[in-house]
Fold:
Amino acid sequence: MMRAPGAYAVAVRRKGGEVVTLRREVIRLSDLYPVLKTPILRGVVVLFQSLALGIRALNFSAEQVLEEGDSTPAEKSPGSWAVYGSLILALAFALGLFFYLPLLLTDALARLLPALRSSLPYNLAEGIIRIALFVGYILGISAVSDMRRVFQYHGAEHKVVSTYEAGEPLTVECARRHSTLHPRCGTSFLLFVMVISILTFSLVPVTAPFWAKLLARLLLLPLIAGLSFELLRASAKHRRRLLYAAVVTPGLWMQRLTTREPSDDQLHVAIEALRVALGGELPPRREVAPL
Structure:
């Protein structure tokens, strides 16, 4: 899946080898409501809009894999509710694994270790546990063959976007030369979320009841997401500067877990997705994003 200014596109290779695509225009909410261009707030808007586009992309992809419908299905389909339900379960699982469980474990440790009963050590321990769970989760799912294929497509998206941003022809040969790592990747965004949450959650008193600390973490998530978006955007734009390079590097390290070297066929699918997102033409280089 690729998103270009004003549109997004999905490319899927069917079982028979045919590549089918879907392109839809994307209305920029900030054009309708200028207040949404406000820093931090715009990051929250982009996050929720990306989730909505991801649902549509998953629905289209599932239809094509099952060879249901044609290459331009209606936006609403019988399988949509199943995709929405799966997404809700996935979000609930993510919140439980990366927010509820780290808080629960840190609370238990704080009862045993008096040093964790002050704000910064408590939240630092919780952040370390959260990052460890995230890395362990990625390593665990990478052992599944289907997920390794997903990580290959993830690497293909990055290579193709880098090719376009370098002004090179969108060919498999050119894309092959580029790295599977990209500074605007969602993996880097997630790492920023985890690091920023350590500081943000420090505002919540350690002495607060467990339910209050958990509720505060959920309520602070939009703020953390907005701050993470601004940091990701700034670090990607100025990544050649020493300070920003230091910020970007851990995210690039993390991407080594979520990307794999793609095959030529996978690069071809990613190229088709970007071509379709751009309207079949190659306009002057602008920022595009793998989703």
Observations:
- Strands lie at 2-4, 7-13, 19-25, 289-290.
- The chain has a mean pLDDT of 85.
- The chain is about 65% helix and 5% strand.
